[in-house]
Amino acid sequence: MSIRNMKQAQYMLFGVIAILFPIVTSAKGSTITLLASIGILSIATLGFNVLLGYSGQISLGHGAFMGIGAYVSAYFVSQLELPFFLALALAAIIPFFVGFILGLIALRLEGHYLAIATLGLAVVIEEIFAEFSGFTGGWSGTKTTYPTIFGYTFDKLAVYILIITILVILMIVTYNFMKSSTGRALVAMKKSEHAAQAMGVSLFKYKLLAFSISTMYAGIAGSLYIHFFRFAEPKLWGIGLSLDLLAAAVIGGLGTIGGAVVGVGFLKILPTFLQTVPILGDIDGLSFVLTGISIVIFVMFYPKGLINLPVDIYKKFFSKKPTEAEEVDL
Amino acid sequence: MNAVLKVENLSISFGGLKAVDDLSFEIGENMIYGLIGPNGAGKTTVFNCITKFYTPNTGHVMFRRSANDVVDLLDYNVHQIIGLGLARTFQNVELIKDLSIIDNLLIGAHSQYKTSVLQQAFLSPSARKEEKEYREKAMDILRQLGLEDKADAIAGSQPYGVLKNVELARTLMSSPKLIIIDEPAAGLNETETEALAKMIKHIRDFYHCSILMVEHDMGLVMSTCERICAINFGKKLAEGTPQEIKSNKYVQEAYLGKDDDDAEN
Q1: For residue A201, what are the CA distances in angstroms to A82, A299, B110, B178, B241?
Q2: Which of A108, A181, A205 to mutate to test the interface with B (most CBs of B within 10 A)?
Q3: Which residues on B lie below 8 Å from A182 (Cβ)?
Q4: I want to staple B113 with a disulfide (CB 3.0 to 4.6 A). Which of A27, A84, A181, A320 is the partner?
């Protein structure tokens, strides 16, 4: 019980530090933007990890669900003038049902049909968003405002604080969820489908559940994205974003909660530093190259992910005998 | 006799091969029942038919849940079987290696959980209570099987013999009426096999369930089973007590080959 409490406290501590950091350092606007986009993508990656890291299914079109969440949220706030939190809830629920229906079709078949179906979605989604111009503003994009809650209009920093708060809440909820019987069923399914079935886990039901839940996270992330940047256009939500989520989950550490944040942080911060390096910084699309190389390196040499690196380094240099059977970091 | 499980005229073929051919047998209440046969006789196939991993071509598998509630397992999906009161183990130990032993046991209770995903994610009081109950149940079972000191160890770090017992413990989490065990002695040495025989009997006596086992090790089968069904090429050769099976001419032929005059000298 004490470990459980500790984990949740760790996430909260992380949240407090993340919120205080820009305030204490009175960070520039661009730094807040960087941190906020890390927070937003972390939310989507957290959901992606439920799917890939815990239940072993893969989606190549999660960016599309972020897009749906973003447009839904912008539409309800700007066009229908609904309260922000209601729009946020709808931005979670609507992608959930879109994911549910897609999963209902794609998961009936055994094998990698979910990956294929979502890849198809990733390819066509930009066109779809562009066509629905009444809803999305077409290729020229759609604008919205900072959220207003109970008459208080957020500024940039306040939205950032909101993003981190939601991220921390979702980290805790995800942790509880993964430690529950449903979470164990997902893990069992990933490791041995036979065992899971024999223990009463319906593979179809739990794959569908994992996929729908992960699209819900993507929808929430999309909503926060559009209310932070106050602008979105169709080409944001294509396959590039989907692969970024995949990369962040793999690099951070599959099947871990902190890994989502670490992975996104790595992918976002490193290119920012590298851009200041002469020659290297001049390469076009540096972050794409970096993403690709990082996936290969991590899959080949360190599939446990960055989140486990400090523990492994500590074990290697500071503890004489490796402790057997240490619990995998969540 | 009140049979817990009644297999009736079960047949399944793969391509042109009849893996199980018109097989019938029944298992009484609180009975340890053995299914034996030489390699490739179709034992594991029978198992997979009963637990719905395979769907047989013909036949019925009648399972008595209570006095007035008899169901045909073939009407259910593979993941629904355990909820009816029938839990199984696997020949090659299917545990989740990254999880602790107690978490593995809790997976065995999956079919018993009643709280919803939302209740679990937000740690509602009923979800907490439920989790605590099953955790206690898991500890009780581990204690019964002498595994309580391993509860928090990661499954992957434990030796094979322990894992076999853990898998057996996991079946008990769903309070089954019938446990079916696939080759429990495979990969165990003689001492471990003897301990296993004791444990199987203890489980039957303590948890009041029937046990069906598929087994190669004749020593284990003869010392634990009350009734045995011997099959070969998917067909029943003989059924009876261990003594009857041992002295049965067809069984001897199947295991040792035909008793020719040449072999006598």
Answers
A1: 40, 29, 7, 19, 37
A2: A181
A3: 117, 120
A4: A181
What CATH architecture does domain A2-269 belong to?
Orthogonal Bundle (1.10)
Return the amino acid letter for A72: V
Tokens read off for B162:
């322990």
Identify all chain B residues contacting A170, using CB atoms and an 8 Å cutoff.
none
B134 CB neighbours in chain A (<8 A) are 181
B194-250: pLDDT as tens digits: 888 888 999 999 989 999 998 877 888 888 999 999 888 888 888 888 888 888 888
B1 touches A at CB < 8 Å: no
Inform me whether the C-beta atom of residue A180 falls under 8 Å from chain B C-beta atoms: yes
Of the candidates A173, A194, A324, the beta carbon closest to that of B121 is on: A173
| Closest CB from B88, B99, B121 relative to A198 | B88
Give 10-residue mean pLDDT values along chain A (330 residues): 68 89 84 91 94 88 92 88 89 93 85 86 88 82 82 85 94 90 90 88 91 94 92 86 90 89 89 77 76 87 85 76 44
Distance between terminal CA atoms of chain B?
Answer: 46
- Is there a contact between B110 and A203 if contact means CB atoms under 8 Å apart? no
Q: Which CATH class is domain B3-85+176-264?
A: alpha beta
Residues from chain B contacting residue A173 (CB–CB below 8 Å)? 121-122
Please say whether the beta carbons of B55 and B45 come within 8 A: no
Q: What is the mean pLDDT of residues B31-60?
A: 87
Task: Locate the domains of chain B by residue range.
Answer: 3-85+176-264, 100-175
Q: Could you give the CA distance from residue A330 to residue A257 in angstroms, rounded to a whole number?
A: 6
- Interchain contact A2–B (C-beta under 8 A): no
